[in-house]
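[Q] Does anyone have a clean structure-token version of this?
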Amino acid sequence: MNNQGQAELMTLTACEITSIFSDMALLVSQRLGMTDSARLCLVYEEAHSLVPEWNSVAADGDRAATATSARAILQGRKYGLGCLLITQRTANVTKTILNQCNTIFAMRTFDDTGREFLGNYIGSDYARVLPSLQPRQAIVFGKASSCENPVLIRLNDNDRFRAAFRPVNEPRRPAPYVAPEVPIDVADEENDLPEADVAV
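[A] Here you go.
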């Protein structure tokens, strides 16, 4: 309340709001106790705006807010708290959280900084392929993939994805084809890379 007895609205940045949600998710997860299974997943859409790298911070309180979100993700794993980062600017997302990612889906990217960072995960040969990926293609690498090497995948289009969830009385489409586990030789032309359809 101000001195006129009126309620004042506090202005919070996107980073500060994110830190509140992240901290509350950690608190709830901690109260439920430790677990090996996933309980809660926070989705950070446009992560470069919600958990920015220190040099990308615009407002004074955003550094502390980003540190709070990063702490929640670092501590939350043992309580079943995970996160999904979605960004077009990998270089502008805090590395504290990015370095905790178990699986990377790298889509077409042109900036050198993003490719260099992704190259640390998927390898520099695969990172060089990123600018030439077609729409809905991605290179996936990590625990969510059964392959030990990065794999080129093609994500299903919207209609096919929605069709998979239609009522039983409507005709169903066949399951997507999954490519065999064959390592990609990045020396091959990009059109020769194996693809697998994956629903998102």
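[Q] Thanks! Anything notable?
[A] The mean pLDDT is 83.
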